[in-house]
Each structure stands twice: as structure tokens, then as C-alpha cells.
Design a protein that fits this description.
- By secondary structure, this protein is of the alpha/beta class.
- The protein has two domains: 3-19 and 215-409, Enolpyruvate transferase domain (UDP-n-acetylglucosamine1-carboxyvinyl-transferase, Chain, Alpha-beta prism), CATH 3.65.10; 22-212, UDP-n-acetylglucosamine1-carboxyvinyl-transferase, Chain (Alpha-beta prism), CATH 3.65.10.10.
- Helix content is 30%, strand content 25%.
- The strands form six sheets. Strands 20-21-1-22 form a four-stranded mixed β-sheet, with helices on one face. A four-stranded mixed β-sheet has the order 2-13-15-14. Strands 4-5-7-6 form a four-stranded mixed β-sheet.
- Strand 8, helix 5 and strand 9 (164-169) form a beta-alpha-beta unit.
- Helix 2 packs parallel to helix 3, helix 3 (71-84) packs parallel to helix 5 (147-156) and helix 7 packs parallel to helix 9.
- The longest helix is centred in the first third of the chain and has 14 residues, at 71-84.
- It starts with a strand and ends with a strand.
- 48% of the residues are buried.
């Protein structure tokens, strides 16, 4: 297995052009594929998940669609292919075969698809026997498992001959991602009604148009952590982010203002400015922004902040069980992270940081990038560093560009 030795040397550049949003890119690729009109997508993400989806849609395989380890691609293509194709298998990696899909498959089958499981009930791989012959136009779906199920159904909703009404069963997690989906659909002419927990979309057409994808706020979170933790960095410019963003992870700006970083919005992005604000104990509910949790955990561990966290349920079904992974790796720097009374607690670190640390990534890009800020304080060894290709292929290069040394070894 390849390793990467990461250590801070000397700050030399305060400007990073961030990678594009994977979440926006993947939604737009499905919209483009569903539209009969010309849709131009500018600034498409170079994340591996997006490349997999783009290649599959372009190559249009006859019977087997291999989504590898791309979770969003799995969920979006399940609905897309149920609408478009007969006799199709969707397969993926070993980890993908442990990530649940039953809620989405059940909903699609109720609408009129014929989907079966090829191995274990409720999990990929799946077989789509017949595309949707719509029977009903109203369904219920749980909102506390994955918002991607809801977004997947919404994207195909305008193409269904009778449209669809989706009743979201509370609690509703990651709501901003559903709002993003609807905003992108609206950009291409789709009208919808959202009343409390019911979203209704009638049969209509995606119209022609263009869209420039914003930079990725989830990726921005790693640079917030580095500015907060690194004593030698006072400011850092991130190019490509918008004040009026569709991305829910923009909330990182509010979270970090009391963990050492102020955000100034500028015409072409944001400027991160170190401040002295530091809460000793912080309570955060991540139900609308679960991808930020790992970043905040590591920052809090380094800066000796006690955390009380809620809304982390979806982290169990990501690329790995992220809660178990974080528990194991945080223990290496003397931080206890555990579940108690329906919340997760990160105890304040009391010991000194080691001079050297090895981090396992569990084939999870966010584990790798969330722990990167530790390299500001010690020599960090990241196992399997290429996992960042899933969402942010240029991460280690960008880290080097501002003064870190990243050296590969076996």
C-alpha cells in the first residue's frame, strides 16, 4: 500500500482554485441526460465519482453498468435506468454491496419499475427487468437515511408521465441537498411545489440552458481546518465559491467563525482570515451537513475543544462506517470519541500531540483529507492517499502549493 508523508515547511502561497462541486456535477449530468434540449455544463468536477457517471452516460452500456465505488452514481442511475432501460444490471465494488438501496428500490417498484436484487436483499447489485410503467404518482419515503434517494426520484420526476408527489417522512436529514437538486432543476425550467414535507412535480420538459458549476464547499472545509490549526497561516484565498450558494456545506463559514476562522466573501471567492475565537465546548447538529463532521472533529481534537454532536447517523453507510473510523484514528492522538444518549461526544484532548502519526484512511476520501490539518503540527503519514481522487484529486498538490511537503513512499 502506498503511503504519503506530509509535513508543513514554509507558507508560500495564499491562493487556491478549488475543485468543482461533485454534488452539483452529478445532478447536472443526469439532468443533461434526461433533457431532449441542449444543456451546457461548464466547470465539471474532475472527481472520480463524476468521471464514472459521465463515462457511463456517454458509453451507454447495453446490459451492465459498473458504478465501482460511486455512491451518488449508484443512487442516481438506479432511478435513471429504471426510467430508460430494460434488462440492466447495476454492479459495484465490495463496499458498494454493503451500502443500502432498499428504500429507493421499493419506491421505484411502487411507481412501476421491476427491480430485483442479485445478491443480498436490500443491497446492490441490482437488476432492472422492466423500465417504469407508472402505476401511482404519490409515494412516501423516509428522510433520515439518505437525501440522495429523494434527489434521485426528483430528477426523473418531470419525465414520469404522471409526475410524482413525494411525501418525506420526518425526520428529514441533509435537506439542503434536496434543495440543491430542486434549484438546479429549476434552472432548466422545472416547476415544483413544496409544501411542508410534500414535494410535487408534474410532467414537464427540461429546457435548454447552461450552468457554471460552483467550487466545492465540502472541499473548502479542509482549508478552513488548516487555517484554524496552522500557526503560520493568517489568510487563505479560495477561488470559485459563491455567497449565494446552492450547497448546504456553506454552513462551514458559520461553524468555523468560533473555531478560529472568519470568512470574507469576495467577487471571485472567499478569503479565510484567522481569528482568536475559540469555544471550549461546542454543540453541533450535522443532520444537514454530515460531510463536515470529520473535518470539525479533527480541528476540535487539535485545539482541545469538547464536542457534542448529533445528526451523524448517515455516516455509518458512507464509503466506510465513518464513526468507527474516526473513533479509531482520533484515539491515536488521545481523544475519546463515543456515543452516549443519542449523541456523539468528543472528549477534550489532555495529552501532547506525538511527533509522528500514521493514519489509516479506510478507503474513505474524507478520512484522509480531514486528518490532513494534523500535518501542521507533526509528521503525518497517510495510508492509501489516492483515496482523495473520489472527490478532490488535486488535494495533495494544492496542499504542496501553499507550503506543505508531500512525499510518496511504499
Amino acid at each position: 500500500m502506498e503511503h504519503l508523508i506530509v509535513k508543513f515547511n514554509k507558507f508560500k502561497n495564499n491562493r487556491i482554485t478549488l475543485n468543482s462541486s461533485k454534488s452539483e456535477s452529478n445532478r447536472l449530468l443526469i439532468i443533461q441526460a434526461l433533457s431532449k434540449e441542449k444543456i451546457n455544463i461548464n466547470n465539471l468536477s474532475n472527481a472520480n465519482d463524476t468521471i464514472i457517471l459521465k463515462n457511463l452516460l456517454n458509453k451507454n452500456p447495453n446490459s451492465i453498468w459498473n458504478i465501482e465505488d460511486a455512491g451518488t452514481t449508484m443512487r442516481f442511475l438506479t432511478s435513471f435506468l429504471s426510467l430508460k432501460r430494460n434488462n440492466v444490471k447495476i454492479i459495484g465494488s465490495n463496499r458498494m454491496e454493503k451500502r443500502p438501496i432498499a428504500i429507493l428500490v421499493d419506491a421505484l417498484n411502487k411507481i412501476g419499475a421491476k427491480i430485483k436484487y442479485l445478491k443480498n436483499e436490500g443491497y446492490p447489485p441490482i437488476y432492472i427487468g422492466n423500465k417504469i410503467n407508472q402505476k401511482i404518482n404519490s409515494i412516501q419515503i423516509k428522510g433520515n437515511i439518505s437525501s440522495q434517494y429523494i434527489s434521485s426520484l426528483l430528477l426523473i420526476a418531470p419525465i414520469l408521465k404522471n409526475g410524482i408527489e413525494i411525501k418525506i417522512v420526518q425526520p428529514f436529514y441533509s435537506k439542503p441537498y434536496v434543495e440543491m437538486t430542486l434549484n438546479l432543476m429549476k434552472n432548466f425550467g422545472i416547476k415544483y411545489k413544496w409544501n411542508k414535507n410534500i414535494i410535487k412535480i408534474t410532467n414537464q420538459k427540461y429546457l435548454s440552458g447552461s450552468y457554471k458549476i460552483e467550487a466545492d464547499w465540502s472541499a473548502a472545509s479542509y482549508w478552513y481546518s488548516i487555517v484554524s490549526v496552522n500557526d503560520h497561516i493568517r489568510t487563505l484565498k479560495l477561488v470559485g465559491l459563491r455567497k449565494n450558494s446552492f450547497q448546504g456545506d456553506k454552513i462551514i463559514a458559520d461553524i468555523m467563525k468560533n473555531i478560529g476562522v472568519y470568512t470574507r466573501f469576495e467577487s471571485d471567492g472567499i478569503l479565510l482570515i484567522k481569528n482568536s475565537n475559540l469555544e471550549s465546548t461546542k454543540e453541533i447538529n450535522f443532520k444537514n451537513c454530515p460531510d463536515l463532521a470529520q473535518t470539525i472533529l479533527v480541528v476540535a481534537a487539535i485545539k482541545k475543544i469538547k464536542l457534542k454532536l448529533k445528526g451523524l447517523e448517515s455516516l455509518k453507510i458512507k464509503e466506510t462506517d465513518r464513526l468507527i473510523a474516526m473513533k479509531k484514528e482520533l484515539k491515536k492522538i488521545g481523544c475519546n470519541f463515543y456515543e452516549a444518549n443519542d449523541e456523539w461526544i468528543l472528549e477534550r484532548r489532555n495529552n501532547k500531540l506525538p511527533k509522528k502519526l500514521i493514519i489509516n484512511t479506510y478507503k474513505d476520501h474524507r478520512v484522509a483529507m480531514s486528518f490532513a490539518s494534523l500535518s501542521s503540527k507533526l509528521e503525518l503519514i497517510i495510508r492509501d492517499p489516492e483515496v482523495v481522487n473520489k472527490s478532490y484529486p488535486n488535494f495533495w498538490n494544492d496542499l504542496e502549493s501553499i507550503g506543505y511537503v508531500c512525499k510518496k513512499t511504499i
